[in-house]
Amino acid sequence: MNLFRISNFDIRVLENMDFQTLQKTTGITFKNQELLKQAFYHRSYLNEAKHIKESNERLEFLGDAILSFLASQFLYKEYPHYPEGILTNIRSSIVKTQSLGTTAKKLGFGELLYLSKGEEEGGGRNNISLLADSFEAYLGALFIDQGILQAEAFLQSYLFPLIESVVKNKSYIDFKSFLQEIIQETHKVSPHYEVTKTEGPDHDRTFWIDVSIENTHLGSGIGKSKQEGEQQAAKNALEKMGKL
Question: Is 136 a catalytic residue?
């Protein structure tokens, strides 16, 4: 086993980095394997691996732009009757951190990340934000290695299938803002959100939320964060009001 002694601890360079499995899963073999690895170099890793000169941040920058373009193109073609505002909201739902991070996790990107010891011990491999960044970096690397058509094919296989559910469930709508507008117009007050129950440890908690006005219950929701629970409660209220 090849180990590099860096900053007083051992970093396993290739043993835990199974890029062959990823390439078999996606059916995409990189011409430049070093470029593929670079997509997974978190900046913290550079502090301890002095032989690595560049993190994945520039690839992430490029991938972000490519993702926005290809998502816009896909939505423009697939939803010809939707106005610009709705297309923008759908795109935002697809390219947001949660969507990208969840997709990256399913592809096993977390196990491929090159992290510092501190970042790894802090749960970096399961950090949705880091996973989302690696998704964009991978897309940027794929574009450089094989061009826009392969980048598009990758997104159509692994990210764009989420769009159908987003459109069907209207989850591109900011339900809280929509409910706020309606209640302000009809009652001249703001909806009140209350956590009625929580379960689970801090890193994996579930929240039950009720929304009401002037002691009148409007709807309930459940989410892995207060924000998600509030959105679901607002959606439930809007459905009961016949606004969705």
Answer: yes
